[in-house]
Amino acid sequence: MSISDQVTMFYNAKPHIFEKAKYLRENMTLAELKLWELTKEKKIRGLRFRAQHPIDIFIADFYCHSLKLVIEIDGGIHQSSEQKEYDIGREAEINHWGIKVIRFTNDEILKEIDKVIDIINKICIQRKLDLEKI
């Protein structure tokens, strides 16, 4: 991997972030596994999504580099006020890189996956159009 790939795809993520991302890929939650089955191998609009992808000091649940799009899956912990505050700051940092973040709950993934995939498809279409304007 070249230095420019390190900067552009991983946004200067350090080695320990890659190690943690690998661990998270090997220990995905049920909701993450379900969404991964439907996003891997370019199953959504021919787009490549990466699971547990390093971005700077963060790890995105799913990332599509060509659209600069992150998909986050929020478990119950994300309902606490402290975690919500952290998520807002984290999302702002990721947005700083020009990356859009969308969020779904575990329940949405596990109980309404068809609706989730439909939303992701629509967002991917719009995101591609938005990036073409830049």
TrEMBL record:
Residue ranges annotated for the DUF559 domain, each copy included: 19-123
Residues spanning the signal sequence: none
Gene3D superfamilies xrefs: VSR Endonuclease
Top-rank taxon, per record: Bacteria
Cross-referenced PANTHER family: BLL0828 PROTEIN
Protein name, per record: DUF559 domain-containing protein
